[in-house]
Fold each of these.
Amino acid sequence: MNALVVSSISPTDEEMNRLKGLCISSLASQNYSIIESDLERENFNPCISLSDYPGVSEQSISQSQKKAYPNNYSVDILQEIEKIKQSDLIIIIAKLKFGILPTRLVGWMQRVFVLKFAIFSEDKYLHGKKIAFLIKTDGRDQEETETRTNKFIEDSFKSVCMKAFVPFYIHQDINEDLTREYLGNEISWLII
């Protein structure tokens, strides 16, 4: 089985990079082959634009015209779509900033999931796939932050008929045992 680990973490954020390493090693110990999308390292563009549709002019940007170009996407979107197609499990690792998800990650969710899978309804690629989140909070009101983040996640993935499991929130220091437990016990039953 393949696990896609998507992160939007600064290379200088030692704590979050440690969490990503913990996630990868925990999944590898469960015999997952790891595919990685490091949105910061790849300098992933979070903005939806006409450049997402090479060869489509502004005059032909209507919904009916877009449907004529369902596979004509920018290279970065096509690369991410291919990673998703190869994956059984998707783990998204993020650190909230001012109580919200990182811009690159939100852009990735919108450009890759919403653009490709919701607008063009290619959910056959998502059938049987599961998605889980490891989210480090920034110390703000935990309940409000979790409620708002859960709603955003649910709404984002509901549009592509994909089940997003309740995120694992880390409010203080990263507890390796609890993280491994989430990745082991909680995730292990997701893939059937």
Amino acid sequence: MWHQNMERKEKAIAEWGLNLEMGFHVVKRMLEMGSL
């Protein structure tokens, strides 16, 4: 049970990290478009 809970936690962290990375790329693109 504990191991299963850890896997779920790692999956949530991985998804959060992916969302953070995607958000960063969107902000960066918006800044580049704004500067152009």
Amino acid sequence: MRRYDPQITETAIDTQRAVFSPTLDFSARDGESTSPQNTQLGGGNVVTNATRNFSATYTDPFAIGSTFQFTVLTNRASTTSTFSTVNPSYFSEALATYTQPLLRNLGLSVNRTGILIAQNNEKISKSQFRQTVMDTLASAEKAYWDLQSAIMNQRAQEASLKLAQDFLEQTRIKARVGTLPPIEITQAEASVADREDGIITGLAAIRTAEDSLRALMNIPYDSPLWHQPIHPADEPQVLEKIVNEDEAVKTALDKRPDLEQARLDLANRNADLHYRKNQRLYRLDLIAQYGAQGLAGTFLPFTQTFVTADPSTPPGCVPDPVDPTICHLVVNPPDLSIGNSYTQIRNRDFDNWSGQLQLSIPLGNRAADAAYTASKYQQEQSKLSIERLEQTAMVQVRNAVRQVDTDLKRVNAARVNTRLQTEKLSAEQKKYENGMSTAFQVLSFQTDLTTAKLRENQAIVDYNKSLVELDRVLGILLDTHNITVAS
């Protein structure tokens, strides 16, 4: 299940990056209103206004905190008011706005906080997956050695049974010739039965160890592999490993996934604290705008007045009936299509610009202060977590190094014990053959030899398992086996 976590956290990075993705917004509206007028300047007793507008806005936020916005809009208006000079009219405008924060939300580090935290979370998720793989591999290796231990113990039990059976046959021969009483046969038979019980128990232990290994291998429950015996390919080896404890601790502090995750979490806390500190500042924005407008439509006729005697007076000017020194000319302006309004914008016939500073002061600023304080506590908490994990790592490494040394000494001692028990049994067997010992003594020495062999097997397996545990607590188990976790 852990293998999906990095993919899930990777989508969070895309989500945070999407904050800086440009957007394109469209808006369209159509409406009409009729209202009574209470003044002669209304253009009629009842005036009906109809509007239809469309706008498109492109918004592009930048990582430094600034935002660029470009809007194009067109508005068509018609009215029954007699005072309107353009009816219907087409008003168009293109407006560019650039907003730059100067205090709050200023800077790459502040605005990329979400991306940085998401990237660190992805690294944490990958580290957790590697840790899961490492723990699973360690469990599988230990289960493998447990299976090998069960098989080795079974061999020892079989060898013990063979000794008991051979001794039983020898005892029967001696009893038949009269050199031993029949009770000696009973003792030998009881020993054989006891060791057959050990064989049965050992077979069950092998099956249990096989099932544990299959479960760690995640074999489907309906697979035929559940019914096939597992034959380990490698016998346990005793390769003496000398470990420098100080170097081992340094390796663990550098390689352990849990410490890597804790340090990445601290990096997240530092980034969040930096962001929260910035959010305590006032909001001061510099806003710059530049735009151009255009007007088109049906222009209603209007009258212009000229001086009659002026040479520039156009022909067709009608003298005023009251004052003949002036004359009037009715002008019929041409209709302009909506495209003409865009031409006026392109030519910047009617442009405008503005610049402003906008300041916002949160009175009390309690929300930002509380968030900053909480973030600071979380940072300190993360630092303490790293210290605790480093202490835990040091203790685990020391224990693992000590266990490797202890198990190696156990192996050497167990081997000596097995050799001595073998020699002791051989000597006792010869004494028995010469009538200088009893069946009880020989059978006891056989049991001692079997116990010594079982202890030797367990010491060898424990040594190999302690090496696995050492690599696990050092964080280098995957490196030891040249295993690379794919991205």
Amino acid sequence: MLIHSIENKGLAMPTTEEFREEVEAQISRASKQGRLHVEINAGEIHRIISPDQNRHAMACDAIRQLMGPSDRVIHAPPAGDGPSFTVRYALPR
């Protein structure tokens, strides 16, 4: 996992790369299990990487960055980013 910068308050700030690494890890695990798809939810990724900070937009960005033509947004909140944002990734990749 990447080492992230420290904010002035002394709290470790996650990076989009850390969120992306977690999404990639979940996709990889699902693929190794022989699944045909995996659904990734921003709120779940956020709780793993940054449970004490509001970084849902970063989680959503990471999820979007890894989308390909066969992947689908299955839920997006009205504002676009939020804990309910969910994508179904087609497997294998």
